[in-house]
């Protein structure tokens, strides 16, 4: 009969390898984050004309705050154009946006219509906004995002001469008036966005094209139209990555910026089911991502299966053989130690990102609660992703 120790030797080396790979990735992330320093070009002698694109579907709760923030931009109003794409909203989004347009001549509302382009969702909105854009640079955000007054100027300065696309940093900000579960849910999503902003940006800092954040990006007009625009880009539900990759494929440079002036705040996704649909949408649209992205996804996801599975297997073997000897306790201590190291490195990483963008750092208690949140969301996302269910977003199925 196979001994207890032989069973352990068969099971835990593979699980240990996954966990060790995750630790190595975290060390690399921290290395680049601590070396990173945002680089901006000198302020131009004359600010260029810019067009800001805002996709809005059923955003009556948010569109007013979004436009208020955009109207407060520290940017010459005669050089500013704000295009709001009202994507067949069933609430008062269009009405609210048109009220703002009446008060500000630089705001224009475009009602998005069905056509035969084959595009859907935000990509279709962008393809109908671009024909109205008059600026030399296109800044893209969402209706549930609030930007800072310095945002437009900082995004312009993030583009060097040959840079075709750049992305700022977006975080979820909890409503200060929120209480109880609503505040907890938003706070944890805020930490989660911080963590994954770090992962996305670190890839770019290592000299490898990553992707842009679709609610906080800037595109050079010349680079955009060299791709043919959204109307000529194959549809993807993650339209930000498609545009980013097409521009990079044309030989343009990219920039992922982590600095206070380009930090934007988004509202949280309401509810666990909606969050799972959001994650499934990202993963479904990410099928065209390079192999190294999926390697990272795989290691990240497997970590939350590997360590719990290892512990479960060891406890099961202990129960079957009723024998805690043969190094069983030592193996469990090793797995617990790996998780502790992972949590410490993760905490350092999140705190460093907060420092880079000028945000307050979460207390260690929030970091601890976030670890449970991350495990539940990761496992839930994996299960939900493999289920034969369509992605639902803004009331539409994809």
Please identify the structural class as seen in this structure. alpha/beta
Determine the mean pLDDT. Answer: 84
Distance between the termini: 52 Å
CATH class (first level) name of the domain at 50-182 and 209-269: Alpha Beta
Q: Sketch the topology as an H/E string, one letter per element.
A: HEHEHEHEEHEEHEHHEEHHHHEE
CATH superfamily caption of the domain at 50-182 and 209-269: Spore Coat Polysaccharide Biosynthesis Protein SpsA, Chain A
Low-confidence stretches: 1-5
What CATH architecture of the domain at 50-182 and 209-269 would you give?
Answer: Alpha-Beta Complex
**Estimated share of beta-strand residues:** 5-15%
Q: Do you know the CATH topology of the domain at 50-182 and 209-269?
A: Spore Coat Polysaccharide Biosynthesis Protein SpsA, Chain A
Using the alpha-carbon principal axes, give the shape.
globular
| Count of individual beta strands | 12
Major sheet: 7 strands, mixed
Number of helices: 12
Radius of gyration: 23 Å
Percent of residues in helices = 40-55%
Strand order of the largest sheet: 3-2-1-4-8-6-9
């Amino acid at each position: 009969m196979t001994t207890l120790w032989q069973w352990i030797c068969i099971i835990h080396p593979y699980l240990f390898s996954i966990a060790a790979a995750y630790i190595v990735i975290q060390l690399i992330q921290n290395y680049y984050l601590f070396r990173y320093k945002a680089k901006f070009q000198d302020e131009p002698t004359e600010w260029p004309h810019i067009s800001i694109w805002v996709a809005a579907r059923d955003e009556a709760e948010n569109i007013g705050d979004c436009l208020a923030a955009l109207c407060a931009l520290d940017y010459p109003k005669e050089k500013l154009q704000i295009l709001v794409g009202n994507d067949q909203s069933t609430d008062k989004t269009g009405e609210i946006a048109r009220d703002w347009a009446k008060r500000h001549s630089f705001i224009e509302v475009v009602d998005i219509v069905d056509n035969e382009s084959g595009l859907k969702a935000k990509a279709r909105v962008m393809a109908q906004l671009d024909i109205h854009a008059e600026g030399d640079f296109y800044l893209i955000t969402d209706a549930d995002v609030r930007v800072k007054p310095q945002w437009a100027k900082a995004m312009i300065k993030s583009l060097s001469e040959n840079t075709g696309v750049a992305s700022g940093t977006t975080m979820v900000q909890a409503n200060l008036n929120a209480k109880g579960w609503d505040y907890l849910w938003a706070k944890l999503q805020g930490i989660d966005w911080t963590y994954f902003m770090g992962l996305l940006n670190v890839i770019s800092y290592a000299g490898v094209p990553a992707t842009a954040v679709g609610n906080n990006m800037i595109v050079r007009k010349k680079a955009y139209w060299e791709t043919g625009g959204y109307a000529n880009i194959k549809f993807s539900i993650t339209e930000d990555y498609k545009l980013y990759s097409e521009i990079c494929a044309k030989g343009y440079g990219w920039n992922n910026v982590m600095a206070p002036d380009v930090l934007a705040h988004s509202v949280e996704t309401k509810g666990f089911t909606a969050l799972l649909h959001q994650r499934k949408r990202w993963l479904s649209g990410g099928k065209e991502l390079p192999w190294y992205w999926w390697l990272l996804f795989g290691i990240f996801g497997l970590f939350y299966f590997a360590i719990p599975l290892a512990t479960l297997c060891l406890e099961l073997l202990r129960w079957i053989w009723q024998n805690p000897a043969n190094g069983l306790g030592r193996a469990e201590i090793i797995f617990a130690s790996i998780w502790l190291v992972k949590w410490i490195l993760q905490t350092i990483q999140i705190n460093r990102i907060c420092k880079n963008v000028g945000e307050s750092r979460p207390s260690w208690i929030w970091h601890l609660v976030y670890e449970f949140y991350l495990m539940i969301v990761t496992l839930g996302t994996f299960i939900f992703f493999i289920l034969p269910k369509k992605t639902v977003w803004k009331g539409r199925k994809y």
